[in-house]
Amino acid sequence: MQHLVAVLPFQKLNSIDIAARLSTKQPILNNDQLLIDDKNLEPIFDSIFPVLKQYSYRNKEQLLRLEELNDRRKFSLKQLVLGLINNHNELIDEIAQKFDISNQVLELVGELIAVPYLELSAEYFTKKLSKFHWREPFCPVCGNKPSMAKIDEQDRVKTLWCRFCDTNWTFFDKVCPHCLNDNIETQTFIFPSNNKPFRIEACDKCKNYLKTVDGRASWGEINFSVTNVATYYLDLLAKKHGYNLNNYFKFYFESN
Ligand SMILES: [Zn+2]
Ligand SMILES: [Zn+2]
Questions:
Q1: Rounded to the nearest whole angstrom, what is the distance from the C-alpha of residue 167 to the centroid of ligand 2?
Q2: E strand or H helix that includes residue 171
Q3: What is the model's pTM?
Q4: Considering every ligand atom, which ligand is closest to the CA of 186?
Q5: What are phi and psi of 179, to 5 degrees?
Q6: Which residues fall inside 5 Å of ion ligand 2, going by CB?
Q7: How far are the Cα atoms of 29, 60, 162, 186, 248 from residue 204, in angstroms, in the given order?
Q8: How does DSSP classify residue 245?
Q9: Cα(123)–Cα(2) distance, rounded to whole angstroms?
Q10: pLDDT tens digits, the chain, 256 residues: what are they?
């Protein structure tokens, strides 16, 4: 991925007043624009698209259409990524209808393009970020909600993880990061019976959940990206219990 580092708009990233943004509880990257242009995303699109086409037989026709639209500059990757990151479902619906491409395919492509860009940007800010105190329910770099958490029961510190940019930050335990519900009566903890240090912490108020790793019980450092994939069964379990599935899981679960 490092060869893609050149796609970052360094001048713009350098000009951000990080202290000003974080102290006013705003993520470093402005969600409305994320400082990207289509030209930043093109090289990422070009590097992931051949692989995606090769492995996604079922959606090949739609992917080819998307590729053609993109080649002819009829389609804005930036719009797609912004729609996804900011949860603007209407925008995704609009693109889907206009080009006859399913929401699932758009969301998958959007996520595959957004992740490398946001991870590289976050890496760029990691050192600076460590100097600030951030205890918000969303990612300090890209503003997204967390997908996983690690909990150390002893000091009750919870670390949240953003799957879009691979950033970690600390937050309060027993508080839903989606709706800030802190009433334990309306939170459900699901422990799968496999003796693994994982659980689902679900909120009955907003129907969202967090996959959580017990920091003490696990061995060594947790790599969230790997653990996230290794615990897809927990997402299935959450879905079975009626909680909202993250968009990108829908692609894997419903199209295969
Ligand atoms: Zn993030
Ligand atoms: Zn909630």
A1: 21
A2: strand 168-171
A3: 0.86
A4: 2
A5: -130, 5
A6: 176, 178-179, 181, 203, 205-206
A7: 31, 38, 22, 5, 22
A8: P
A9: 11
A10: 666 777 788 888 888 899 999 999 999 987 776 777 888 888 889 988 888 888 777 888 999 999 998 888 888 898 998 888 887 889 999 999 999 999 888 988 998 899 888 999 899 898 889 889 899 999 999 998 999 999 987 777 899 999 999 999 999 999 999 999 999 999 999 998 777 889 999 999 999 999 999 877 655 678 898 999 888 889 989 999 999 876 666 555 554 4
Q: CB neighbours (10 Å) of residue 142? A: 24
Distance (angstroms) between ligand 2 centre and the Cα of 182 equals 8
Query: What sign results for the dihedral spanned by CA atoms 113, 247, 188, 237?
Result: negative
Domains located in the chain, CATH noted: 2-129 (no CATH), 148-254 (3.90.1670.10)
Q: Report the separation in Å between the CA atom of 141 and the middle of ligand 1, taken as the mean of its atom positions.
A: 5
